[in-house]
Design a protein that fits this description.
alpha+beta, Glutaredoxin, 2 domains, single chain, four-stranded mixed β-sheet, about 50% helix, Glutathione S-transferase Yfyf (Class Pi), Chain A, domain 2
Length: about 220
């Protein structure tokens, strides 16, 4: 059985959502952040990359969301929620699968700039980050004006990858989406999915920790 090593308030909640969408069994093991808001030693010891999410599948330890999602879907779900190279929407799927890191990288860059004070260099990078962030979000909004989900008419792993940036990051200073009508409607559609709602109750940013690992 797959074990999801869940660092509280992190992108690992998307793996819980995936498992609920697929109806696959899993074990959820919580790791609370320390007083410094960083991962505890027990979590850091799981994998040299020391990032969330982390899963174990037998003797295999995997990190990186795109790898984990594709691994689970193709090995245990017959490719459900994925798009293959022979399908016409494969390029869209591939693009949006990796869009998450663009938004997340800009969020961290803006956070560093906000903490670093002002000055000529900070002002230049600040304008660059803001311009790129706005371009990305408006491009996302334009895409969702053409299709209900990022890769086309149905939910795929691309949506599971991107949704964290639109639902969780605004709770921690990320860009709000209220001025993006297509994105707002998209998030509403996602929030109505039973699997998503259950995953957020279990492992979302406001979920109550259970089965917490020590150390």
């Amino acid at each position: 059985m797959i074990t999801i090593h869940h660092l509280g308030v992190s992108q690992s909640d998307r793996v819980v959502w995936l498992m609920e969408e697929l109806g696959l069994p899993y074990e959820l093991k919580w790791y609370n952040r320390g007083e410094d808001n960083l991962a505890p030693p027990a979590y850091l010891a799981l994998h040299p990359a020391a990032t969330a999410p982390v899963i174990t599948d037998g003797d295999m330890v995997l990190t990186e969301s795109p790898v984990i999602l594709e691994h689970i879907c193709r090995r245990y779900a017959g490719g459900r929620l994925t798009v293959g190279p022979s399908q016409p929407n494969y390029t869209e799927y591939l693009y949006w699968m990796h869009f998450n890191n663009s938004l997340l990288g800009l969020f961290f860059a803006q956070s560093v700039l906000n903490a670093g004070g002002s000055g000529p260099v900070a002002d230049v990078y600040g304008r660059l980050v803001k311009r790129r962030r706005e371009n990305y979000y408006h491009y996302l909004d334009a895409r969702l004006g053409k299709a209900p989900y990022l890769a086309g008419p149905e939910l795929t792993c691309a949506d599971i990858m991107v949704a964290f940036n639109l639902t969780a990051l605004p709770l921690f200073g990320g860009r709000a989406i209220s001025d993006l009508p297509n994105v707002t409607g998209y998030v509403h559609r996602i929030e109505q999915r039973p699997a998503y709602a259950k995953a957020m109750r279990i492992a979302g940013p406001k979920a109550v920790p259970t089965n917490v690992a020590q150390g």
